[in-house]
Amino acid sequence: MSKAVGNIYIVVAPSGAGKTSLVAALLQAEPTVELSVSYTTRAARTGEEDGKHYHFIDHTAFQSMIAAGDFLEYAEVYGNFYGTSVRWLQSRLEAGRDILLEIDWQGAEQVRKVFPDAVGIFILPPSIEELERRLRGRGTDSEEVILRRLASARSEIDKVAEYDYIVVNDDFERARVDLISIFRARRLRAEVQTRRLAQALARMGVQRG
Q1: What is the CATH number of the domain that holds 74?
Q2: How many Å apart are CA 105 and CA 14, to the nearest integer?
Q3: Is residue 108 part of a domain?
Q4: What is the pLDDT of residues 1-60, one digit of tens each?
Q5: Which residue of 1, 27, 31, 134 pairs with 16 in a disulfide if CB–CB is 3.0 to 4.6 A?
Q6: 24 assigned to some structural domain
Q7: Structural domain count, the chain
Q8: For the chain, where are the alpha helices, taking DSSP H only?
Q9: Which domain of life is it from (predicted)?
Q10: Which residue positions form the known binding site for ATP?
Q11: Angle in degrees, 0-180, between the axes of helices 128-138 and 143-157, rounded to the nearest 10
Q12: Chain segment 57-111, per-residue pLDDT in tens
């Protein structure tokens, strides 16, 4: 890849922590960040559009993509498969774009093996009790599903120390600002800015090493 390579940001959270809402707020505030649209075998929910929220495909097509090596990462979650297109991701990185992957911890581990510099962000609920309250407040899941999600949440939270940043979603507005701040601070690092501002710095007589 060329030097004008974008960054990969991985956002992980247990179900009910508010990841989807926070990511939507981030993308609205930072339009230069591109969200990777995953492939999935689950059925589209009300209001979801193919190609915008997910690429909806059947199990046979998903297995064919696995066999062809089309996925950077993929995982089975609650009986459905999810995967990230490696070709799309590479093309966007080579174009210098910052890419956000909204995936689960299994996918995050796979991505970081290939891209160890990927920035890992964990969205943490303030407590398991609050997470359970949010899950029950949805009114869409059975008792069995809620208990399964809570068990998964405990396992995911055990991995929180493996991430570069932790955002606690106890207050949405504060968590939104914290998440946006991570992206803006990473963009202002000297190694990024000296490359982006190369011509301006040269006019100031700055010699790059």
Answers
A1: 3.40.50.300
A2: 9
A3: yes
A4: 344 468 899 999 998 899 999 999 999 999 989 999 999 999 998 889 999 889 999 999
A5: 134
A6: yes
A7: 1
A8: 19-29, 59-67, 86-94, 105-114, 128-138, 143-157, 172-187, 190-196, 198-203
A9: Bacteria
A10: 13-20
A11: 150
A12: 999 999 999 999 999 999 888 789 999 999 999 999 888 889 999 988 988 998 9
